[in-house]
Amino acid sequence: MGWLADETGLGKCDANYVPLTPLSFLRRARQVYPDQIAVVYGPHRKTYAEYHARVSQLASALADIGVRPGDVVATLLPNIPAQAEAHFGVPACGAVLNTINTRLDVVTIAYILDHGEAKVVLCDPQVIPHLAEAIELMEREAPVVIEVADPHGGAKPFGDYREYEDFLATGDPEFEWIMPEDEWESIALNYTSGTTGRPKGVVYHHRGAYLNAMGQVLSWRIVLHPVYLTIVPLFHCNGWCHTWMMPAVGGTLVCCRDIAAHNIYDAIADEGVTHFGGAPIVLNMIVNAPDTEKRAFDHVVEVFTAGAPPAPATLAKIETMGFNVTQVYGLTETYGPDVECAWQASWDHMQGPERAAMKARQGVAMPFMDDVTVMDEQMAVIAADGGTKGEIMHRGNGVMKGYLKAPKATREAFAGGYFHSGDIAVLHPDSYVQIADRAKDIIISGGENISSVEVENTLMGHEAVLLCAVVAKPDEKWGEVPCAFVELKPGHDASEADLIAFARDRLAGFKTPKRVVFEELPKTSTGKIQKFQLRTRAKEV
């Protein structure tokens, strides 16, 4: 080994080793870009100097009321400036940020507050009644509640709790941040959707948040001073780490409380938005917006889409409208996206359905990940033939620390040295991963496996279909058969027979839906269709 066998004097020291943390991005941005606009929300326009000062005040005010390093501070907020400030201010006082989905039921909110042991909650006025009910159900001591008024968004305070701006005013804008001594220290706690039981608490560390944010700069081909629109809820995987990312590149964060087509188009046209992330339902919203809501813009908007495989038909349409879409993939357990459909120059000639189909693949590991692949039940990598199916496995710095207070579940999730996603996929010859289905979404009809995604993508190709979801419907003869739930575009008509015939012309007979139900689809706050509700509905059809 030569001299490597003796590295005397070559150890870590203060000069050559500092724990990685996204807090460093905002500290640097205050120095390098003090006058650059950092956060925009209607009349709220703050420079990096002002943003840093407000974050410092929040950290100081939290410390003053007894929040100590390692304590949990929760939020029940939409995408408004206070939610962005919490992403830096909470860890800057050494605490752990727990962003809670504002659409959760009272019982689940109470469980999360108890399980995470939150000491403080920053809450939007529209959610205050739910929070009050949840606190009544808690078994632990109730957290301190800070009400975050939003005059611009029409959310007036109830006045029963201390208001956020008043609270902020008690803090010191020169507060000395408590930086992590170890990059493995926890920075955030996120709860899974919990559709099949109690939600699990996913714990992130400073190192993973830093590397995920930096890796996405590369994957998204970001240059200095992007303008990012917060469509992905900041309570969903901490907004895919994008709020932590923005100061690293001197970017502007444009907050969007209400996700609607006209708000998206206005932000692009008026604020010059260059980037945003969102589920395929957001792409549908943009494509199918009425002409009265659309705005002209003269630049390309880069879009990360994830949450479900977007229909090739949707991708083909939106690319003609000034949007360049990159399919990404990840889970709460991987800090959001950790896989990207990295575009190859050899694909540039592709057009129409061929190009859209290529872009619908989830892709390859982002730079901060060691490996993302597809394995069989024996944890052997499957054949890269685009047809053999297995489970997507993740390994790298973008994987969670584990599940809070659930060592058994953590061990099971990490069995064999990989994180087990539960997502079923194929592996293409070029090593690109493509989701076939969630394991629970596979339909087994007469012994044949049917991918609900394949059927959904087919139906989305019909000109009248706005959204669709396919689930298993119990069947006496076949065990289960595909049942499609469909939302039609405004002004369009199609019958059950029309859509079944459309699918039959394009799919094998056993894959064709046996029933089509027309109704509004139940969705989560991030735009994911709640298939567990549709499975219940299918049993009633």
UniProtKB/TrEMBL annotation:
Its cofactor is Mg(2+). Its EC number is 6.2.1.44. It comes from the Bacteria. Residues 27-404 form the AMP-dependent synthetase/ligase domain. Residues 454-528 form the AMP-binding enzyme C-terminal domain. One of its GO terms (biological process) is fatty acid metabolic process. It is an enzyme of class 6 (ligase). It catalyses: 3-(methylsulfanyl)propanoate + ATP + CoA = 3-(methylsulfanyl)propanoyl-CoA + AMP + diphosphate. GO terms for molecular function: ligase activity; metal ion binding. Keywords: Fatty acid metabolism, Ligase, Lipid metabolism, Magnesium, Metal-binding. CDD domains: ttLC_FACS_AEE21_like (cd12118). NCBIfam families: PRK08162.1. Homodimer. Belongs to the ATP-dependent AMP-binding enzyme family. This is 3-methylmercaptopropionyl-CoA ligase. It comes from Salipiger profundus. The lineage of its organism: Bacteria, Pseudomonadati, Pseudomonadota, Alphaproteobacteria, Rhodobacterales.
